[in-house]
Design brief:
39% of the residues lie in helices and 18% in strands. By secondary structure, the protein is α/β, with parallel strands linked by helices. Helix 5 crosses helix 6. Bound molecules: NADP nicotinamide-adenine-dinucleotide phosphate.
Length: 301
C-alpha cells in the first residue's frame, strides 16, 4: 500500500501543531503542512494531491482543513470540494479550532443521558464556532434548542443559519444578561427550567451560568461545560468531570443530572479526531464535517 500522505491546509500563517501531532498519532506517514492557505491558493495544492496517484493509491492521499478562523477554513473546505471532479478526489475533513470534533463529542456525551429526539436543550455561548455546531447537531437529532447569546441578534443569526441547513430545526434565540451573579430571568429562565440538556460553549475562562441558575435546571439530565479555563463556564462543574452525578446541586432534580467538563469531553474529542483522520484514508470519497464526526463519535466512545 502507498504511504499515507496528509496535506494539512491551514488558514493561519503557522499551521496548527496540535492538528499535526494528532495526524502523526493517527498513523499518517508523511505530513505536508501549509499555512496561510486561502481558497485560491488551495487549488494548486489540491491538484498536487489529486493528480499524483491513481487507482487504489489515491485513497492514501488525504486533506485536513483547519485553522483558528472558522469561516476562512469553511471557505477552503468548500473550495477543496469544488476542485475535485468525478472520481478524481481524495478524502477530506474539516476541523477548524477543533470545533467539529469538540461539538460532536459534546453531543455524544449528552446522548448517553438524554433521548435527544425527545429533548429540549439550551446552548449557552451558542454563537461561537463550537456552540453553533452543537446547535446544528442537536437540531438534526430532533432536539428543540434554545440558542443563548449576550446579543439576541447573534443568536437569531445562528438560528437562521442552522434552519437553512436543517429544515426541521426547532430553534429559539434567547438573550443572556452576561451577569452570572444573578438568577437568569425571563425566557432564558423558562428555557433552563424546561431543558433536559444544558451545554456551555462560551469563550475560555468565561462563566456563563452561576450556581443559582444551575439550581433552576430542574429537569436537566446532563450538563456539558466545554470551557477548561477557570472559572468554570457552569459554576460547580469541574473540567475533569466525566459523568459525575450532581446529587445536591439541583433541588428536586430526580434522578440527579450528570456533569461533563472540558477534559471529560476532551477524551471523546481526541478519539473522534484520530478516527476521523484514519477514515479519510479509507476511501477517496470520504468527506467529514461535524455530522460525520458525530457518527464517528457514536462508534468510538
Ligand atoms: N475540550 C476541548 O477539546 C475543546 C476544543 C475546542 C474548544 N473548546 C472550548 O470550547 C469553548 C467554545 O469554543 P469557541 O471557539 O466556540 O469559543 P469562543 O468563540 O471564544 O466563544 C464562544 C462564545 O462565548 C461568548 N463570550 C465570549 N466572551 C464572553 C464574555 N466575556 N462573557 C460572556 N460570553 C462571552 C460569545 O458569545 P456572545 O458574544 O454571542 O454572547 C462567543 O460567541 C471554549 O471554552 C473553548 O476553549 C474545548
Amino acid at each position: 500500500m502507498a504511504r499515507r500522505v496528509l496535506l494539512q491546509l491551514d488558514a493561519d500563517p503557522q499551521p496548527s501543531t496540535f492538528d499535526a501531532i494528532v495526524a502523526v498519532d493517527a498513523g499518517v506517514d508523511v505530513l505536508l503542512r501549509h499555512g496561510g492557505v486561502t481558497p485560491e491558493s488551495a487549488v494548486p495544492l489540491v491538484h498536487g494531491g489529486m493528480f499524483t496517484r491513481g487507482g487504489k493509491d489515491l485513497a492514501s492521499t488525504a486533506i485536513f482543513v483547519g485553522g483558528s478562523d472558522v469561516l476562512a477554513a469553511e471557505a477552503i473546505f468548500r473550495q477543496v470540494q469544488k476542485t475535485f471532479f468525478g472520481p478524481v478526489r481524495v478524502g477530506v475533513m474539516l476541523d477548524p479550532s477543533g470545533a467539529n470534533t469538540t461539538a460532536a463529542a459534546a453531543v455524544v456525551v449528552a446522548a448517553r443521558h438524554a433521548d435527544l429526539g425527545q429533548s429540549k436543550a439550551v446552548v449557552l455561548g451558542g454563537s461561537g464556532p463550537v456552540g453553533r455546531r452543537v446547535v446544528r447537531l442537536l437540531a438534526r437529532e430532533g432536539c428543540a434548542v434554545g440558542v443563548a447569546s449576550r446579543s439576541v441578534s447573534r443568536a437569531e443569526a445562528v438560528c437562521e443559519a442552522v434552519s437553512a441547513e436543517v429544515a426541521e430545526a426547532q430553534l429559539q434565540a434567547v438573550e443572556t444578561s452576561g451577569d452570572t451573579g444573578i438568577l437568569p430571568r425571563g425566557r432564558l429562565l423558562e428555557l433552563l427550567r424546561e431543558a433536559d440538556v444544558v451545554v456551555a460553549a462560551g469563550a475560555a475562562g468565561v462563566r456563563l451560568l452561576g450556581s443559582h441558575g444551575l439550581a433552576e435546571c430542574r429537569r436537566a439530565r446532563v450538563f456539558v461545560d466545554l470551557n477548561a479555563v477557570p472559572p468554570e463556564g457552569l459554576e460547580g462543574i469541574q473540567a475533569s468531570d466525566a459523568g459525575r452525578v450532581l446529587s445536591a446541586e439541583i433541588p428536586g432534580n430526580e434522578p440527579p443530572a450528570v456533569a461533563y467538563g472540558a477534559l471529560g469531553v476532551g477524551g471523546v474529542k481526541m478519539k473522534i479526531h484520530r478516527e476521523a483522520v484514519q477514515q479519510i484514508f479509507t476511501s477517496n470519497s470520504a468527506c467529514l464535517d461535524a455530522e460525520e464526526m458525530l457518527e464517528i463519535g457514536r462508534t468510538v466512545s
